């Protein structure tokens, strides 16, 4: 099992959600790219982190 923590930074707001873009580790490609998070959860956070567990 592999665990990865991805960092995202604020990109823009839409009507009901906030778009965040991934900040990849130096020298690596993005894993998820951009994600949308509902405003009721995101609030006014400028940075978020997401953990992914890859189960082999």
Structural account:
The chain has 56 residues and is mainly β. The protein has one domain. Helices cover 7% and strands 55% of the residues. The protein has one helix and four strands; from the N terminus they run βββαβ. Strands 3-2-1-4 form a four-stranded antiparallel beta sheet. The model has no long low-confidence stretch (mean pLDDT 94).
Number of domains: 1
Proportion of residues in β-strands: over 45%
Q: Tell me the radius of gyration.
A: 12 Å
**Widest sheet: strand ordering:** 3-2-1-4
- The helix content is under 10%
- How far apart the termini lie comes to 6 Å
Beta strand count:
4
Oligomer: single chain
Based on secondary structure, the structural category is mainly beta
Q: What is the general shape?
A: globular
Overall pLDDT metric? 94
- Total of DSSP H or I helical runs spanning 4+ residues: 1
Order of helices and strands: EEEHE
Q: Main sheet, how many strands, which sense, barrel?
A: 4 strands, antiparallel
Short recap of the structure:
This protein has 56 residues and is mainly beta. Helices cover 7% and strands 55% of the residues.
Topology:
Blueprint: E1 2-13, E2 17-22, E3 34-38, H1 39-42, E4 47-54
Antiparallel strand pairs: 1-2, 1-4, 2-3
Question: What are its keywords?
Answer:
56 residues, mainly beta, 1 helix
């Amino acid at each position: 099992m592999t665990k990865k923590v991805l960092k995202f930074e604020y990109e823009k707001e839409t009507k009901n959600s906030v778009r965040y873009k991934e900040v990849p580790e130096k020298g690596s490609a993005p894993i998820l790219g951009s994600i949308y998070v509902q405003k009721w959860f995101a609030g006014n956070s400028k940075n978020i982190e997401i953990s992914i567990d890859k189960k082999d």
